[in-house]
Amino acid sequence: MSAASLAVCSVEGCDSHVQKEGHNLCYVHWKKSRQVAEEPTASYVATPQIAPPPDVSSVFLNSTSLGERFNLDAKQINRVLLDLGWLEKDGKGWKPSELGEKLKAKRTLHSKSGVPFVLWHQDICKSRILQKAVSEILSIELEPLSVVQASQISEEAADKTEGFRDEFPPTIRASDGHMVRSRGEAMIDALLYENRIVHAYERLVPVEQAMYCDFFLPEYDLYIEFWGMESNPKYKARKEKKLEIYRQNGLKLLEIKDTHINNLDDYLISQLVKFGFKPR
Question: Which domains does the chain have, with CATH numbers?
Fold first, then answer.
């Protein structure tokens, strides 16, 4: 059969004849139709679902969040971590020590101030070492003097004579190991230790009268007195005598009142700067 006698391709606009009788497509369009038939129908390939990264805020805790786990504020928990050797000063902020880094702590910067601070992995809360250290600082913060002891100490605490010191030995261990007599003194001692300030507790003041200071800072030749019971008239009278001795002998004195304790970090550091201390 001649090509002229075969039907024309059924594809609109195509004038080519089909190759075989009974077909309705020319060779070109027949081949194209075969290719389309042989190609697999495109199937939907689901995009792999990648699990989102863990929420950093739920895995890592700043000092405020970590402190809340132990009923401490940020300053208190930082003091504990510093005592444990897990935290170090970094300018106006903090960074993890080598030990802290082993506990998965990481240094970061505050988005606005740029001050460095530390994020602690939540696993640190399971540390028995940390739990014990927190228990110790809570005992310092919360343990009040007994009524009997407070009334007896108020008579002599202003000058801390030998008799007083023998009769009422210090019973509270501060974070650097010093044994002190009150919560306020423990907090002062801890802050001095935290800022790497060498200090002596209850040093004999070099004056004619037998008198002990609360703290002495040899680097600054500075004495510190904590007035914790000024509401007691006898205590207040002894305080005034003691102040006069400091004045007469030209000794440098930094006074801390009970009202300063709640804001001790800011108050004490600002006062120490006046005597030459330079915060790291």
Answer: 56-132 (no CATH), 146-274 (3.40.960.10)
